[in-house]
Amino acid sequence: xxxxxxxxxxxxxxxxxxxxxxxxxxxxxxxxxxxxxxxxxxxxxxxxxxxxxxxxxxxxxxxxxxxxxxxxxxxxxxxxxxxxxxxxxxxxxxxxxxxxxxxxxxxxxx
Length: 110
Fold this sequence. Notes:
- 72% of the residues lie in helices and 0% in strands.
- It has 110 residues and is mainly α.
- The protein starts with 9 loop residues before the first helix and ends in a 9-residue tail after the last helix.
């Protein structure tokens, strides 16, 4: 398929990595909100004293899931940036080799 081009949108991938980082920042803010909203045992009164025993493990799991999500999002953003940089560097190197291969040979006297 001569003449066809393969294009990798490195700038778009880098922008997407920025968006993924933004989502990770939002998850961090949500995690902070979970820790602020958690109520102490005295907030449930006499009749509902059993609720903290039920809810606290759920809150802990939610915080753990948010920590894991943040880590995964940051890693994904880093991997997207690395892929864009790698493809760009490979393209530049290949372009240089192609350009130098097509350069005229030196005219050496025989």
